[in-house]
Amino acid sequence: MLASFAFLLLPQDPLATVRAAETQRVALMASCAPAVCSVMSMDAPGGGSGVVFAPAGFVLTNYHVVGEPDKEWGPPKPPAGTDAEQAAWRAEHVPPGKRHYRNKKVGLPDGELYEAIVLGIDPGSDLAVLRLLPKRAGQTFAHRPLGDSDRLLVGEAVFAMGNPFSLATDFTPTVTAGIVSATHRYQPGSGDRMLVYPDCIQVDAPVNPGNSGGPLFNQRGEVVGINGRISIGDRGRVNVGVGFAIASNQIRNFLADLLAGRHTEHGTLDISAWFMTGGSADERKRGVFVQSLFGDSLAAKAGIALGDELLRFDGIEIRSANQLATLVGVLPAGAWVEVGYRPRTESGGFGDERAVVLPLSRLDTGSSRDGVDARLASRAERRLATAAIAASWPARSNSEAAVRWQCRAPDGMTFVAIAAGDQLRLERSGLVLVRDGDRGSFVRDKSGVRDANADEAELLRRFARAQPLLRAADATHLPEGALLTGGIHVLGAPAFRFELPGDGEAETWWFADGTPAGCVFRDPVRRAKVEWHLRGERVRVVIDGKLEPGWSGSMVAAVPFDPTLFARQP
Amino acid sequence: MTRVLAGHRLAIVVVCTAAIPAQDFGKAYAFAERAPASRLERTIDGLLPSIVKIHGASGLSTIDAAASGVIVSKDGHILTIDQILLQPERTRVVLFDGSVHQAELLPADERFGVRLLKIDPKALTSELRPLWPAPVDIQSGQFAISLGNCFRLAEFSEKVSATFGVVVGRANTALRYRMAEVKYDGDVILTDACNNPGHYGGGLFALDGRWLGLNLRLLDSKETNTMLSAAIPAIDLLPYLDEQLHGKRRAEAPAPAGKPWFGAMLFDQAGRQSPPAYVERVLPNSPAAQLALRADDMIVRLDDFSIRTCREFREILAKFQPGQKVKVTWKRGTQVLTGEVELATEPAK
Question: Contacts of residue A316 in chain B, CB cutoff 8 Å?
Answer without folding.
Answer: 30-31
